[in-house]
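Practice problem 4.
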């Protein structure tokens, strides 16, 4: 190798050694011409930071899992406790209003029958007609009664003639007796004949009056003011006296509707609160907004042993014709509420073998309280003993509800004020 080549090779090696550190510095992001920076310590710091972050993430995950398990355990325990809705009793909300069904009847309700036999000649009023006392309703032809009356009147004239003869004879015999022309026996006989003749006249007159009365029944008249509610006859019908037939047919039916009677069966438990003279209010399903006043006029003063109710009569002034006989109404009696009675919904009652119970929530547990029912209002009932207005009563209790069982109240309604 020539000396020139060796020098060139040495210069090349020196140049390469100088360029290599510069390239490394450039690759490490250092300024050209600067010496390289040591990187071993920085890697360890990054690794430590990464490890800390990983441990923190793992710890956070474990914490979240523990929190979730606790929430799940709490939710499971909560779900195991039955949820209930409660309601607070109302003090005397409906106890002062006792509504009972009643039957409306006319104050006077009369079927009209014929009192004599014959044929219907004419009728004058039909159903729905308003009539007054004494109005002629119909006329019955009674030819047999007419003939019997004529015969009886003729017989009366004959009896009167016999009476006159007996009177003249008795007077004559009494005058002859004074002159001792006849015996006392003959005078007494004449006097007896006069008395018998007078009795025969009286009997004949009574028979005439009887037949005249029967003849007067040919005219069927209204016995009182009212409304014709039925007409069961027509012209030419064979009429039989009502009292002489096993199954008489009424000719007319007459109702007096100026005042109506309403009969109500009051339960025995409320019978002591019913007083004659007290007021009542009537309502109808056909017209629920209409309130009709009435007055308690009388009661049976005895409990029906079959229904255990008291029959009460309420009279209603019906001059305007608001009500009709036979209508179905509800009679509302205003009764004093008991001082310790409350009202609860009917769906709070529990029927158990040991008796009627109501579930009450006390200190987070259900207590089965025995109660006594006063009035049943349909959707609610009156409780006369066992509950207070501050008791939280369970609605729709389960049949499996046990005394002392833990429960969870889902709603908290406001307590009713007395």
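Answer key:
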């Amino acid at each position: 190798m020539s000396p020139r080549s060796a020098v060139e090779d040495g210069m090349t090696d020196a140049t390469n050694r100088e360029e290599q550190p510069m390239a490394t510095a450039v690759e490490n992001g250092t300024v050209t011409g600067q010496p390289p920076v040591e990187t071993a310590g920085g890697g360890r710091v990054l690794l430590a930071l990464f490890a800390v972050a990983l441990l923190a993430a793992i710890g956070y995950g474990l914490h979240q899992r523990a929190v979730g398990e606790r929430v799940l355990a709490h939710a499971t325990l909560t779900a195991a406790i039955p949820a209930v809705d409660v309601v607070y009793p109302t003090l005397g909300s409906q106890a002062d209003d006792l509504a009972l069904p009643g039957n409306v009847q006319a104050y006077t309700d009369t079927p009209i029958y014929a009192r004599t036999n014959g044929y219907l000649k004419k009728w004058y009023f039909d159903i729905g007609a308003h009539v007054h006392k004494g109005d002629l309703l119909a006329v019955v032809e009674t030819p047999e009664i007419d003939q019997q009356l004529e015969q009886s009147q003729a017989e009366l004239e004959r009896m009167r003639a016999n009476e006159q003869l007996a009177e003249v004879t008795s007077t004559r015999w009494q005058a002859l007796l004074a002159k001792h022309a006849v015996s006392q026996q003959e005078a007494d006989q004449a006097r007896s004949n006069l008395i018998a003749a007078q009795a025969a006249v009286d009997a004949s007159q009574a028979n005439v009056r009887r037949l005249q009365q029967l003849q007067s029944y040919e005219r069927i008249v209204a016995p009182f003011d009212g409304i014709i509610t039925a007409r069961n006859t027509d012209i030419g019908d064979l009429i039989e006296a009502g009292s002489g037939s096993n199954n008489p047919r009424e000719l007319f039916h007459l109702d007096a509707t100026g005042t109506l009677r309403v009969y109500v069966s009051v339960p025995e438990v409320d019978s002591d609160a019913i007083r004659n003279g007290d007021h009542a209010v009537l309502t109808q399903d056909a017209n629920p907004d209409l309130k009709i006043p009435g007055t308690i006029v009388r009661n049976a003063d005895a409990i029906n042993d079959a229904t255990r109710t008291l029959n009460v009569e309420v009279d209603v002034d019906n001059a305007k014709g608001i009500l009709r006989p036979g209508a179905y109404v509800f009679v509302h009696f205003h009764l004093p509420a008991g001082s310790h009675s409350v009202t609860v919904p009917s769906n709070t009652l529990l029927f158990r073998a040991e008796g009627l119970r109501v579930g009450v929530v006390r200190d987070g547990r259900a207590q089965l309280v025995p109660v006594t029912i006063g009035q049943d209002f349909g959707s609610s009932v009156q409780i006369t003993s066992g509950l207070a207005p501050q008791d939280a009563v369970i609605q729709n209790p389960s049949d499996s509800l046990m005394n002392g069982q833990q429960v969870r109240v889902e709603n908290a309604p406001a307590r009713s004020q007395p």
